[in-house]
Amino acid sequence: MRQEVSSFNPSVFVPASAPVADAEDEPPGPRSSLAFSATAVPCPRPGNDATTIVPFPRHRVGSTSGRSQFRRRFFPGVSNKLWNDWHWQVSHRIRNGTQVRAMLQLSGEEDLALEGAGPKLPLGITPYYMSLISPDDSHQPLRRTVVPTLQEMVKTPGEADDPLGEESQSPVPGLVHRYPDRVLLLLSDFCSTFCRYCTRSRVVGHGVLRPRRSRLERALAYIRATPTVRDVLLSGGDPLMLSDDRLAWILLQLRQIPHVEMVRIGTKAPAVLPQRITRQLVRMLRRYHPLWMSLHFIHPDECTVEAYRACAQLADAGIPLGSQTVLLKGINDDVETMTDLVHHLLKMRVRPYYLYQCDPITGSSHFRTSVEKGLEIIRGLRGFTSGYAVPTYVVDAPGGGGKIPLMPNYVVGQQGDELVLKNYENSLYRYPNRDCSISGL
Predict the structure, then answer these.
(1) CB atoms < 10 A from the CB of 61, how many?
(2) Do residues 188 and 241 touch, judged by C-beta distance below 8 A?
(3) Would you call 182 a catalytic residue per the annotation?
(4) Which of 51, 61, 188, 191 could form a disulfide with 211 if both were Cys (CB 3.0 to 4.6 A apart)?
């Protein structure tokens, strides 16, 4: 039987061992695909380091036409080399109301929020991420996550600046020890793009948590002196906003601690600043395995060709990738949007890991859904798509209680020796639930 082999888009997936010219500055985009015939795919030979990728259908991602118009209008003359330089992206962030007004047609609530003192969390958006935002639709999902509104200044019952009680579980500055065998190490308070629902908006972007060596040494000393710690999660702020050398120093210190078995890095860079995932960064990271990454994708519109490429580079380096998605009202709180997102993530080799109920930080009521909505989404995923695509839905308990997993109740009850269960189609089934160890059978 003849085997059909689809075209492969080299701009979406680049194997780690494939030679890539250092001078390649063109952004990944819809270029002509290479056609491979079925007979042209050789079988790998033992000892042959060359990696041959079996062709995969081109991923469908959003159109780049609006983004090109954005660049021509607001950054004319900026070369592809500069646009794809993460340092340039960070130094040219959109940081004030004047810049936003020039680029977006603001709603009344957005305009007023950018006046005067404004919200507690600073404004910061990379040019790349701004190019994904609708200039005239204030209800566009990505726009709502990064452009402030007056609703951020409304505090509702149950909200707090530090709802998870991190400050009370911080034995040294910038380190949270909540669970017995793992700690959270906050490297800095800087992000390239500030999410308006950020659980650490009390510190992020305010310059109070800098990656000073003296502070980091105190945190490392605590980890060295606490042998129960086997897992360290680096977060912030975004750890990837540190230089490669600074991040490598931290990873080296952790690798030299005998009881630290694994290190995780939490970052939103592949979604808001995919230019940060460079060959140099990836080469450095792969030296410190076992290393894991928790990425932060919240909507399918973030799954661009650039994001696909960034995740491919990390995955090719052997770094397991998981996504921690926050459930947000009017942004991703329907089954269709969430299904589209998790399918994109799997194609990007990112495992949907957690679906977080939005934390009750001060001024977040417009982002929070009911818990029932989250359970409805899990019901809409379980059984209707791959198990790998279904994240664990969790509430991070206020006051420092930690993550509590929630699932729809598929147990109807017990009838005699049988457990009555309900499947994803709401059909009932019986499972023999006798304790055979005491039945003599």
Answers:
(1) 19
(2) yes
(3) yes
(4) 188
What are the two backbone dihedrals, phi and then psi, of residue 421, each rounded to the nearest 5 degrees? -120, 155
Catalytic: which of 67, 129, 195, 333? 195
Catalytic residue among 179, 222, 288, 410: 179
Cβ distance 362 to 120 under 8 Å?
yes
Can you tell me the mean pLDDT for 290-313? Answer: 97
Catalytic choice (67, 182, 268, 368): 182
Peptide bond into 258 cis (omega under 30): no
Q: What is the pLDDT of residue 40?
A: 43
- Tell me the whole-structure pTM to 2 decimals: 0.85
- Residue 139 scores a pLDDT above 90: yes
Query: Please, what CATH class does the domain formed by 167-406 belong to?
Result: alpha beta
Separation of alpha carbons 195 and 192, rounded Å = 10
CB contact set of 155 (below 8 Å; sequence gap of 6+): 362, 363
Q: Which of 224, 246, 351, 403 is catalytic?
A: 403
Could you write out the DSSP letters of every residue in 139-174? Answer: T-HHHHHHS--GGGG---TT-BSSTT-TGGG-SBTT
Residue carrying the six token digits 């509702």? 156
User: Is there a catalytic annotation at residue 85?
Assistant: no
Q: Which of 71, 143, 144, 200 is catalytic?
A: 200
Secondary structure of residue 308 in the 3-state scheme: helix
120 among known catalytic residues: no
Structure tokens at 165: 């009680």
359 is catalytic: yes
Residue 154's CB is within 10 A of a number of other CB atoms, namely 13
CA 246 → CA 188, 284, 314, 350, distances in Å? 12, 11, 19, 26
- At 102 the three-state DSSP class reads helix
Per-domain residue ranges for the chain?
Answer: 1-58, 65-153, 167-406, 409-441
User: Is 178 labeled as catalytic in the residue annotation?
Assistant: yes
User: Is 403 known to be catalytic?
Assistant: yes
pLDDT-wise least confident of 3-17, 191-205, 212-226, 286-300:
3-17
Peptide bond into 380 cis (omega under 30): no
